[in-house]
Amino acid sequence: MKPLSLHLRLVLAASLVLAAFLGLTGWALDNAYRKSAENAMQEQLQGHIYALLAAADEDELGRMYLPPELPDPRFSSPDSGLYAQVVGNVGDYQWQSASLVGQQLNIIHPSDAGEWHYEKPTNHTKLYTVNFSVIWEDKNNTEHIYSLAVGGDIAPLLNQIQSFRTTLWTWLGGVALLLLFAQAAVLQWGLKPLRIVTRELNQIENGKADKLSGGYPSELQQLTGNINSLIHHSQASQERYRNSLGDLAHSLKTPLAVLQGAAEAQDARQLQAVAEEQIPRMNDIVQYQLQRAAAAGKVTLAKAIFIAPVIQKIIRSLDKIYQDKGIAHTVTIDEQAHFFGTEGDLMEVFGNLLDNAYKYGKARVNISAEETTEKLIIHIEDDGAGIPVDKIDTVIKRGQRADEQQSGQGIGLSAAYEIIHLHQGKLKINKSKLGGVEIIITFNQ
Amino acid sequence: MRLLVVEDEPTLRQQLKKQLMEKGYSVDVAEDGEAGLFHGMEYPLDLAVIDLGLPKLSGIDLIRQLRSADKRFPILILTARGNWQDKVEGLEAGADDYLVKPFHQEELSARINALVRRAAGWTSSIIQCAPISLDTRTQAVQNNGLPIELTSYEYRVLEYLMLHSGKVVSKTELTEHIYDQDFDRDSNVLEVFVGRLRRKLDPDGSLKPIETLRGRGYRFTLKPMQSGEN
């Protein structure tokens, strides 16, 4: 599955967080408001009970008497939404407010004296009720228990909560909308550098630019820097391929001209002689240019290659090939010594140089490598005849002049030199203590 | 000496077969990796020349499979790719030497020669079993320094016996190593070759270089000495 775009990830994540946060906030506020509204209602109803008790008087029989004009006029008008009932244990004493006229309702819950009892509304009553029982001492000092109940309609409460909710969610919605806009703007601004990279890469693809411009935030700088190096590297190797191809074509022209001349001379023996001479020369040219073009050179993001195992492999191979010579070798390579480049380049350099050492050496080849923080230095020595000092330059440049030279010895040294050069390394040829050639290669780490 | 050439390019394959047969080898050919593997597994070879870029089974895999099946004959790689990574990979897979195309005929036969000789335990190209000497490179045979003219098949028989001197070589083994698979074999011909060799190497019957062990085969009796020249 294609991974989600950064933009989508951020939008999704931020929106989820926003929704969760605002939702929870709304829910908490709603709950708190409802609780406090209910408490207020309860206190209000309690207040009514106290008011009823304050208004209560005694009739001639010593029973509780509530006057027709009660403190709150709602008790007196029918269906007002505020009702009261009183039941006493004196005979069948029962009283109810005028507002209950024509309704069959019993909201009394007799309880012990001095206790409050609250009842939430049911589907049937739709009333909040508060019960309270008192001990009433009549004229004869006889105690009676009266239970008072006051019920309040929930409709006004519900309306109040509803209107609070409307306000609350309108505001929260508004805030959510604002935050979404802010988030979009932040994303737009935050991801802008990435869009610029994409646009610049497109321009590079279309050939309108040849590298990424420099001004990127620090998090992206490593990435854009590496992209620039990769682009540079690929341009350089393309250049090298083109050059090699051109060099190859041109340098093959000379031997081809010689062959053509010989073919037109219509002398079979001369043609054979010329072909025998020119074919190895053409082969050398092809080999050299191929090696040169295949060399990767300095690679961006190259992982370090430990050189010891690569050199061991080459030595095992050469020991096999030159088995008859029984070359003794000493390998002293710093285990940690490493090379920044491709294994192909490393093999090409040491394959060619060690092959020469085995080929020209008589009985002994020494290889050593040491690494400092700045440099990797490799020595290859043999006990062969060596190269005369005045010929060293010619030998190194042999490959470059493959089209001028007479075909002869291999072009390994020259190919190795080219690759080392591509890695900004140095190759030096000395006379070895063993008698033959000492080659010193230095790479900057 | 019996060689296998595994090469997919038909012209080069035919050229190689012809050249190597002229040098006195019996040559089997295979045009792809699988055919090469079959030959390598089924026939007693003295050496295989294997191209790396083969159809069906790559040269490297062919070499690995032969080596893991404990086939010990020397293997020479032919390759168009001259880079060291490929060379080293081939040699690490179990090949003994490589040759980059294009190559000189002489270079190829010199390498083959050296490998075959080395595999038989000889470090020099000249095998000296006093007073007889045989140069595997030039195919010259001398007795006390005097050259002896041998036909191609006589030379093949003598070379095989001398490379394995002191060991008993059965007629079957000898036949298998001097003829390729297409050849109509007849062990009587072998006896004729051995008879002629005895007359040419030892006209007066004093040396008795080739011993016949009834029912077991032949043995070259003269003691070898390693020659200093290389």
Structure, explained:
The complex is a heterodimer of chains A (445) and B (230). Chain A is 50% helix and 18% strand. Chain A has 9 helices and 14 strands. Chain A is rod-shaped, with a radius of gyration of 51 Å. The model of chain A is unreliable at 402-409 (pLDDT under 50). With 230 residues, chain B is α/β, with parallel strands linked by helices. Chain B has 2 domains: 2-119, Response regulator (Rossmann fold, 3-Layer(aba) Sandwich); 126-226, Arc Repressor Mutant, subunit A. Chain B has 8 helices and 13 strands. Chain B has helices at 10-22, 33-42, 59-68, 84-93, 105-119, 152-163, 171-178, 187-201; strands at residues 2-6, 26-30, 47-51, 75-79, 97-100, 126-129, 132-135, 140-143, 146-148, 168-169, 210-213, 217-220, 225-226. Chain B has a 5-stranded parallel sheet with strand order 2-1-3-4-5, sandwiched between helices. The radius of gyration of chain B is 18 Å and the shape is elongated. Classes of the chains: A alpha+beta (445), B alpha/beta (230). At the A-B interface, helix 5, helix 6 and helix 7 of A face helix 4 and strand 5 of B.
Multimeric organization:
heterodimer
Computed over alpha carbons, the radius of gyration of chain B is 18 Å
Roughly what percent helix of chain A? Answer: 40-55%
The main sheet of chain B orders its strands as: 2-1-3-4-5
In CATH terms, what is the fold-level topology of the largest domain in chain B? Rossmann fold
Total DSSP E strands of chain B: 13
**How many structural domains of chain A?**
3
Name the overall outline of chain A. Answer: rod-shaped
What is the CA-CA span between the terminal residues of chain A?
A: 41 Å
Q: Main sheet of chain A: which strands, in order across?
A: 4-3-7-6-5
Spell the H/E element sequence of chain A: HEEEEEEEHHHHEHEEHEEHHEE
SS summary, helix count of chain A: 9
Strand-and-helix sequence of chain B, N→C? Answer: EHEHEHEHEHEEEEHEHHEEE
CATH architecture of the largest domain in chain B: 3-Layer(aba) Sandwich
Which word captures the global form of chain B? elongated
> Helices and strands of chain B: which structural class?
alpha/beta
Helix proportion of residues of chain B, in percent? Answer: 40-55%
CATH top level class name of the largest domain in chain B: Alpha Beta
